[in-house]
């Protein structure tokens, strides 16, 4: 359960919205970054064409609660596992809510969830649904009130 489920956090939920690989379409990432900001989250946007290692480094350095990967290229089964492994190498996987947005075929979703993706949001998902999911599932921090 997240610290925010009860409405108590010492700091806003911190999110990194990232574009991984050669995917050059970032309108959706900008839209969700703005929606998260408007919801009161702290948001960092990675920019385009980031390698999985760069995203992991940014997530660790920014001490994010949520890592949102926006991917439309179809390379999710190659790139998301690299991000998961990188987060595990830094000991940040259990402290980071990993969500994926974009075009992910139904037949690939269970595999992503099994590797630790908490949720997958496809095109047309209401923004409030995504914001509510993050609020309810962002991991509690040790300095959050009990």
Spatial strand sequence of the major β-sheet: 2-1-3-4-5
The percent of residues in helical segments reads 25-40%
The strand count comes to 5
Runs with pLDDT <50, length 5+? 1-6
Written description of the protein model:
With 146 residues, this protein is of the alpha/beta class. It has one domain: Rossmann fold, CATH 3.40.50.280. The protein contains five helices and five strands. The chain has helices at 27-38, 52-62, 76-89, 106-114, 127-137, and strands at 14-19, 42-45, 66-71, 97-102, 119-121. It has a five-stranded parallel beta sheet, sandwiched between helices. Strand 1, helix 1 (27-38) and strand 2 (42-45) form a beta-alpha-beta unit. Mean pLDDT is 91; it is low at 1-6.
Descriptive keywords:
Rossmann fold; Cobalamin-bd; Cobalamin B12-binding domain-containing protein; isomerase activity; globular; 146 residues; single chain; cobalamin binding; Cobalamin-bd_sf
Task: Chart the SSEs and their pairings.
Blueprint: E1 14-19, H1 27-38, E2 42-45, H2 52-62, E3 66-71, H3 76-89, E4 97-102, H4 106-114, E5 119-121, H5 127-137
Parallel strand pairs: 1-2, 1-3, 3-4, 4-5
Helix pairs in contact: 2-3
Short description:
This protein is of the alpha/beta class. Helix content is 39%, strand content 17%. Strands 2-1-3-4-5 form a five-stranded parallel beta sheet, sandwiched between helices.
